[in-house]
Amino acid sequence: MSKKFLVVLLVLVAAAGFVYARGEAEKAAPKAQTLRVQWWGSQTRNDQTIAVGKLFTAKYPNVTIEPEFLGWSGYFEKVATQAAGGDMADVVQMNLAKGWGLQFLEKGLLTDMTPYVKKGALKIDDIAPAALQAFQLKGGLYAIPLGTSAATFVYNEEMFQKAGVALPTRDWTWKDFQAAALKLHKELGVFGFGEIVGYDIFPIYLRQQGATFFAADGKGLGYSNDAYFADFFRMKLELQKEKAMPTPTEIKQLSGLEDKYIVRKQAAMDFVYSNQSPTVSTASKTVVFKNAFIPGPNVQKGMSLLITMEFTIPSQGKKQDMAANFIDFFVNDVAANKVMMGERGVPVSSKIRDALLTDLQPAQKEMFRFITDVSGYCSAGDPLPPTKSTEVIQILKDVEEEILFGVVTPEAGAAKFRKLAEAVLKS
Question: Are residues 416 and 274 both part of a single domain?
Answer without folding.
Answer: yes
